[in-house]
Each structure stands twice: as C-alpha cells, then as structure tokens.
Amino acid sequence: MTERVNLNIPFGCSSQTGLLRHAIRAALFCTVLSAGAVPMFAVAAQDGVTTARQSYNIAAGPLNDVLNQFARQAGITLASTPQQTSGIQSPGLHGEYSTDQALSHLLSASGLTAVSPDGSSYVLQAEASGGTLALPTTDIKGFALGNALGSMAGYNATHSQVATKTSTALRETSQSVSVVTREQMDDQGAQTVSQAMRYTPGVLTNPYGATHRYDYVAMRGFNDGSVDNIYLDGLKSMGDSGTYSSMQVDPYFLERVDILKGPSSVLYGRSSPGGLVALTSKKPLYEAYHQIQATVGTQGQRGMGFDFTGPVDDDKRIAYRLVGLADTSDTQFDHTKEKRFALAPTVSIDFTEDTSLTLQAYLQHDPDGGYHGGMPADGTLHQRNGKRISENFFEGEPGVDGYERDQQSFGYQFEHRFNDVFTARQNFRYLDSQVTNDQVYAYGWTTPTSNELNRYYTGAEEKLHSFIVDNMLQAEFFSGATKHTVLMGADYQRRKTVVDWTSGSLAPINAFDPVYGNSAITYFSPTSYLRRLEQTGVYLQDLIEMDKWRFSLGLRQDWVKTSDENRIAEFGRPEGTEINDKRSKLTGRAGALYLFDNGLAPYVSYSESFNPNSYADSAGNPLSPTDGKQWELGLKYQPPGTDDLYTASLFRIDQENLATKLPQENFYRAVGAVRSQGLELEAHLQLTEQFKVLGSYTFTDIEYSKSMISTLSTATDIIENKGNSPTQAPRHMASVWADYKFDSGALDGLRLGGGVRYVGYSWADAENTMKVPSYTLFDASVGYDLGKVGLKGVDVRLNANNLTNETYVASCASLSYCYLGEERNVAATVSYQF
C-alpha cells in the first residue's frame, strides 16, 4: 500500500472555491479517514474458532443460504461464488459442532470442500480426483464483508443491501423489499427503469403516461412529481427535482433494481416516505464475457448495445467492464423523437484480499428527450364535442419543442477489511449535467365549447454540479451468543444548479385537427436562479441476531442547508435576493423479525423520513420539510430448500407538509397532511427449472388527513379536502407474469412469457369529483436460443407491451392535466455472446 499523507483539509470550504475542487477535497479527506480509521471499540478475538464447539440450528435449504447463515453464526469469513453453490441443496445443521466439523457436514455430497489458507478464513474449492483442488476461476466475495448481494437465479434474489446497507437476506429483512433481476428486465423488455418495476407491488410506474424522459415512480400512493427517490450504487442520483435537471440511467447498464417500501431516512437522509429505488450498475467480472445486441421495433425504434468485461492481468486482480448503447425512436406522439448515446467504463482493482477499489464513469448524451405533456380531462376521460383527443396528439410546435440533456458522472467504491471484525467502505460520485428545454404545452380550452387549447411556452437553460460521499465503518462481533453487525456512517452531499427560465404564450391549437406553424411566442419576464443544497448526516445502525430473532435499530442526525438566489429582479425582489433555509432532523428506525423453521418470518417495523423543501411559496418563503412515519406489519415465507419468496405487508404512513406545484405556476403549495395505509402481496416463484412466476397485489387507501391550505398570489384559499384521496393514487393494482423455457424435444430453446397488469381507478382532482377509469394491459415475450440450431451464442427475443393496444389514461394530476398511456409497442432484439 502507498503511504497516505494527512492533508489537513477542512471539510467546510469557502464558497469561492469551485465545486469540483470541493468534491475532490472532500473525497480525499474522507479517504484518509476510511483508510486510517482507528477501531472505535475493541472486540476480543475468538481463539480456537476452528476447534471450539458451538450449537447450531440451521434449516435445510439452498447451499448458499445455509452457508451464509452458518458463517454469520460461526463468526468466520467464508468465500464462494454463485456458480459453485447454484442448484445445490444442503441438509442444514443441528447440534454442536466445531467449525471444521460443521463445514464438513454442510458440504457433504456437494463436491465442495472448505480450505483455510491462513487458519482464520475459509474458501470453497471443488474436490478434484487424486486429492487435487481446483481454485475458483471467478471473483470471490466473502459473506462476512457485508457487501455480497447473494445469488440471483432467474427472477429470485436471496439478499439485498437497500434496507440496511449491509448484505441481508430478504427473508431476514424487517421491511418490504422487492428485487428486479437482470433476467427479469431482459425477459420483459424493459426500456426504462420505471418499466422494469411494472410487476412490483406498491409501485405506480407510469403516473405521467407514455413519457420516457424521467423515471417517475409513485410508491404507496405518494407522488410528488419528482424523481428524488432514485439511487445508484448506494448514492442518491443528485439531480435537482425542482428543475428539469433530473438524471436518468438506462436499464441496459444495470444488474438489478432493489425497491425499498416506506420511509428510509435513517440511512439515506432526505427521502420520500413512499420508499426508494436502488439501482445497481453492472460491475467488472473476472471471467471474460462479451455481448453485442441490436434492437428494432415499432415507432421507428432502432438501437445497438455492447457489454464487454473480463480480467486485465494474469493474476485476475484487475478487471474491466465497458458497456455502451445507442438508441433512437420516433415515440407514439407526432413530431417527437427520443435519442440516446451512453457509455459506462468501469475498472475494479483487488489490491489485496482485503482491499478493493472500483472506479466508475457514466457518460450520457440525449439529443432528443421525447414528449412530456398532458391534456385536459375534458377530451381524454370523456368526449368533448363528440370527440376524444388522440393518443398521438402533439400540442407543441415542431420547430420549437426540444429537450437535450448531457450528464456525466465519475465515482468510486472503496472497501478495506482491517480484520475479521472491522470493514470500511466509501462510495463517492461527482455529477455534471447540462439541460436545454423548449416546450410548448397546453393549458385549458379557450372557451367552454371550443376545440382549441390555450398554449404556453417554457424554456430552460440549466447547469448542475453535485457530489456525494458516503463513509461507512462496519463491525461484526459476538456478545455471548448474540451476533451484532454495527454500521457507523457519515455522508455529505452538495449540489449547485444554475437555471435560466423563460416563458410566454402562443396561438391556440385545435386538439382534433391540429395545424402547426403558429410558432410566434409572446414572452413574459424571464427568471434566473442559483439553487444550492448541502446535507451532512451521521448514522448508527445495529443489526442483532439472537437465536431466531432478528432486530434492527438505527438513528440518524441530518443537517441541511438550502438557498435560492434570484439573479435578476423579479416578483418584487431585487437582483441578488437570497432565500436561505436551515434544517436539522433526527430520524429513527426499529424492526423485529422471527425466523420459524418452516420458512415463515413475521416482522414488525417502524421507520421515519424527512425531505427538506428547496421550494418556495408564492411569497418566496421556503416551505416546511415533509415528515413521514410508518408502521409496517408483515409476514415472509420462504419454503425450505428454495429461493422462492412470498411477502405480505400491512402498512400505515403519515406524512406532513407535502408540497406540490401546478405546471403553469412557478411556486409550490403545501397540501396539509396525508395518511396512506394498505396491503401488499408479492410472490417470486421458481416452480420448476423451466417455469418462473411473479405475482403481486396492492391495496392502497390514501387520503388527506388535514385540509389543504394554498397561499396564492392574491389570496389564501382553504380547500376542504380532508378525507379525499390525492390524485395519481389507484386504490387497487395487481399483476401476474409467467415465463416458461423449453429444454427438450422439438421446442428445445424456445421461451414463452406473458403477463397482465391491472390498475384500478384513481381520482382526477383533489376534490374527488371525477374518476380516472381502471385499465388492464397485457404483455408478451417470445425468445429462442439459436445455439440449438448451430448458431452458438446467438439469441433472439420479441417483446410486446400493451398487446391489445388498449387506449387509456394512465392518471391525472388535475382536471387540466391527464396523461395518456402507452400504446402497443413491439421490439425484436438479437444478441450475440462470445
């Protein structure tokens, strides 16, 4: 290891220093801390761990799960690969054993053996004839490090980090967590992160209809119109949800998507009470893998992608991954296009068995951002003058409308294990973004009986710079028979956004017989802002294993600063007027779960969230932060010997100070308090080696528990909506997806998949005077492995979404803005792996 020098760099830097310089200094400072950290408390070493006998009661099941439980209870480091343990069952372990005796029993008849090169850690190796042992050829991750995500087979995942920032079995997590695997994304032909979650309970993935510009996700009834609940590799995406600079990652670059339901501020700071979505990017592999693919589809879709990875050196200590994509489409809306070019280079370096570093970059250029707009309820939910607005209608101007986004992020993930107790991790990312937006949108009919829509213009030039760093020190130790996994962390994030907005009005347009070319804009006064956000948080979590009990306790303290400076005189405020807001918040989480031998695991948990508002009301005053509290009661069931998982959860969330904004307004409103309660059911089944099934059901009862008070520019309105449901919150949702792969006979190599999605009615307005009807959509997939006919490595897949071409309204944010759903789209993908 190279010598590290303490740079004595202060964490709080002057405002005159460039933001990138702040980011580099903060990252260097935290690296010094993580590399040179002194253990905060001592833990006595367990001498004679290989000979001391210990009592175990581990049920039979998949070998990787059984070994995971054993390693945690025995307090050892045990390393393996998913390829070694996949498909192998273990008889479990009951009684008193030494470590060596226990491993011998667990691995009996598996063809594997555990070898200890240093007397304190173990590595699984294949038994070879003549007593020769073959070393694993793929990357090894130890269970005790806390960073392994377990295995993913088909649609089933065994572990997740999203709820605890440590590797925790889904069955042992006392909160509702869903996982979308890479295989599920491929089989279902997901083209956006939102689409990848279409079969996940509690998640409305299309609150704004057929737009693909942002990954909007409404969870457990909460939708604030932002994408602030998206995380990438453990870190918040760091876009600015109050502007057009919201970031997006293409699903082709992802390995999995984890969805955590409910408040989660205790580990992540500011967040939505509905939950968060954690994306895991593709990481380098230590075995060579190369894939290229091409896609063509309806709406003029054309795309190509490549995914190359493998070791760089003979010792397999350095590996790379390079993923790229080029994609274009005409979209379902007239005169609009989507176009994307993206590249993600990644390098992983294993300096030693205890120290690793992954360097990441993500470069994306979106020259065309497609459509993003809504239509009045009158003309979409029901006919106007005997006609309905077409699902292809474009209310803008072909020569004016456009959306261009450039985003670049650079980061790393560093990990060092000091000993069998302490492990330090640090994640860091810097983000730079530029967005240009020109949009002509409709707002209301010109007269009560006309066919013409009023049109307005919004223009934006935005530059965003941000960075975020998360430092973690993890300690795993025993206190008697009780196992503790303690996580101590400190994170810091900073964001600056420069926004220049223009607005105006245009000539109306006939919604049923549009004529374009009236592009003259009458401009209003421009606005210009400098928006800043800074958050510092410290957190402490203890995961406790006491026989069959699993307890989780966590606390976090946050300090958040926001500022909004107008760079030109506006709304009676002189140039340079700055509105500042400082908030601090203590949040907590607690959970308890019990593991029955028959696979049942009931649990109860309490969690909190808060989200400071960087938004201001019509008078320019910052809105109060939103606060969320959730109680959740659930039951998980994993049949012994399988990775199948059934989950049922009852929840209640209370949120205060929710903020919302109408598209034609430049200020936000407080909407009182909201209460959401409901039931979620989910099943991930691998019925046979060939047959996979997903099922989900969601019941959400959400209503305003306090009346909305809206401060307008001229008066204060008190809207008596207590007891009403918010918009874009369907009461019922359900889905089923099944996939079957033939592996013999004349159909060998053929794959068939199909699914159905039901979304119940929702309300089109906060006063609950008009309903958005329910709708049912069908999806299908057909694939074939051409290797079965001699084309080794070639695979073809055909995906169809909304197979019956159902015309529907996805939801309405108000009576003025309803969002048309996606029409049928079909895409064929050919991939070649070599």
TrEMBL record:
Q: Which PANTHER family match?
A: FERRICHROME IRON RECEPTOR-RELATED, FERRICHROME OUTER MEMBRANE TRANSPORTER_PHAGE RECEPTOR
Q: Which NCBIfam families match?
A: TonB-siderophor (TIGR01783)
The family assignment reads: Belongs to the TonB-dependent receptor family.
Annotated signal sequence is 1-37
Where is it located? Cell outer membrane
- Protein name according to UniProt: TonB-dependent siderophore receptor
CDD domains in the record: ligand_gated_channel (cd01347)
Q: Which residues form the Secretin/TonB short N-terminal domain?
A: 76-127
Topology in the lipid bilayer:
Multi-pass membrane protein
- What positions does the record give for the motif labelled TonB C-terminal box? 817-834
Native organism is: Pseudomonas rhizophila
Q: Which UniProt keywords apply?
A: Cell outer membrane, Ion transport, Iron, Iron transport, Membrane, Receptor, Signal, TonB box, Transmembrane, Transmembrane beta strand, Transport
**InterPro entries per record:** Beta-barrel_TonB (IPR000531), Beta-barrel_TonB_sf (IPR036942), Plug_dom (IPR012910), Plug_dom_sf (IPR037066), Secretin/TonB_short_N (IPR011662), TonB-dep_rcpt-like (IPR039426), TonB_rcpt_CS (IPR010917), TonB_sidphr_rcpt (IPR010105)
**Chief localization:** membrane
